[in-house]
Design brief:
heterodimer, A: 260 residues, alpha/beta, 2 domains, six-stranded mixed β-sheet, 8 strands, 17% strand, globular, B: 461 residues, eight-stranded parallel β-sheet, two-stranded antiparallel ribbon, 14 strands
Chain lengths: 260, 461
Amino acid sequence: MSTDDNTPVANDAALWTALRRLTAARIGLPRSGASLATAPLLAFQLAHAQARDAVHAELDTPRLALDLAPLGLPVLTVSSAASDRQTYLMRPDLGRTLPPESQRTIAAAAHAGPYDVVFVVSDGLSARAVQSHAAPVVSAALQILRGADWRMAPLVIVNHGRVAVGDAVAALLGATYLVMLIGERPGLSAPDSMGAYLTCKPGVLTSDADRNCVSNIRPDGIGYNEAATKLANLLNAMRKDGISGVRLKDTSDRLKIGGN
Amino acid sequence: MYAVTVGAHRYVFRDLKTLLAKATPARSGDALAGLIAESGEERVAAQFALADLPLTTFLKEAVVPYEDDEVTRLIIDSHDKSAFASVSHLTVGALRDFLLSDHATSSVLTTLAPGLTPEMAAAVAKISRLQDLMIMAAKCTVVTRFRDTIGLPGRLSVRLQPNHPTDDARGIAASILDGLLLGAGDAVIGINPATDSPDRAHALLSMLDEIRARLDIPTQTCVLAHVTTTLDLIGKGSPVDLTFQSIAGTQAANKSFGIDLGLLKEAHDATLSLRRGTVGDNVMYFETGQGSALSANAHHGVDQQTLEARAYAVARAFRPLLVNSVVGFIGPEYLYDGKQIARAGLEDHFCGKILGLPMGVDVCYTNHAQADQDDADALLALLTASGVNFVMGVPGADDIMLGYQSTSFHDALAMRDLLQRKPAPEFEAWLTKQGLLDKESRIRPRVLPSQFRALLPADGA
């Protein structure tokens, strides 16, 4: 094996070590000829295997319900109309729909309302993400919201759910604001990223343009407390303006950039 | 109505769009839309009927009504009848035979391109095998220019895609450094920004322009923001080389992207007015992908491959520098596995090229699709052999911002070596000047060229 041919620039390992602190991108990979050397090749294969496993993993709904139980709200567990993981991946329409028995379970909890906010948790494309991160984020968010006069609906777990299934849940409960926590499409570097989609007055006419999103929630991305703060701030802004989505401007970013 | 008899069974297809959909090789997006053939025999029956269809049918029967859709109006109103004259007597099957024949040389195909409509190209693709798609596309030469010359025979260019999840300037610069050392960036250095903030897009454009100017790189830069954002930035004096926009094959799908033809024309005119190109004035960069219209519920009952070809009619109206089919990005609901992605990639490349467009392909897949690096390797090799104008270069094939796998700097380099493709000539000369080629003219960086130190945080920050 040649020794001077295995990094993009020979004898400059220190350079790449320094640059890798600036980005998680796979830069400065050792190569042989034009091709990847064995070590970075296998590192990639491992990351892909982990991401694939994350996509196909099933959500352990009883365990998640146990994790959510101490938060002081009733926990309901239902399924979307997608009966299994494969159907879920191929039929986005079924993942957005609640079958009759799920509708009945949720509707039975509406009588204890009215509710302002409902938190819905779905596996989405990474069960691992919500299995790990949903309970801590809901817990932190409830602590912030507790002092501010929000009427909280039961926590709802929807197995094999897409983002829009939360609209149906909120409508059945009569909740004004939806916080949908869902496993995001896993990337190679982040197989366990959770997204939060917030919607004001969700219903059948809701489109993606009506949602606000907090993405990349995980310990190495947006942490639990930061995520909870963002969710609470967005809920407060929605209550103040009565809207959500693209018309509700996230001004925090603009102020930061404008100061440059 | 179109009909064909196979054995004892008479298959009837009620209109042109149904015939096209039923003749389409199987893919999950058409199944999701409920358009797919119900049996293998029905599909081939539709292919027989399609092969016998006179090309003139496509000028009489629109798959999306003329009155309802400005993309249909663009296709019909801009159709070049004199270019079409040489094939106007042919059927779809005969057109395929002609395109494969030795009479269909590169110059003949260049002349023919404006005479073909997207639906004619899509129809040929549906009755072609991958090998046919490769051979027909490889005969097309589509050359475009801005600061270098892209698409010459024997060349393969690379978009350097240095994305970063928070648009961190130093992280982006590190990825650019890696890519340039490995010979990527001659198609464009193009960033997908993490947000659509105009301030951030301006900051990124300024940074890219400074890097390009400081290293004197014969290429163009782009921040892939929404066209309205780029238009505003042009008005404010940002250094815009290319205007980017995602486009689709129906007016309604384009509306869901927040665009129409008028807006694209305005952006094209504004970008041209900057006169920043040195060797040419192709200033638009478009991205497309099968399934986008269905995803926006704007497909009018037309199959996704035909709609994708119609997006190329939109692109064609604005003389783009680059058109990129981001083939595996959309997910398994539309293209289920490596086989469907590979076929779609070659269909898109063929349709784009035969319509006269500078096609590149983002050979890619998501982690919820049934695909892996072996599938990506196969499609990349097939496209390179087909003469694709450009492919993506992402560090280690892992886009840490968009969360999908594309092709790496190494992948592009391996294809250049394996199939003897060179970078764009101006860029190749620049790489030589930087000392990045070995004595066999292969890209083999040995030492960091001193001026590249400008990309390091110690100097650049």
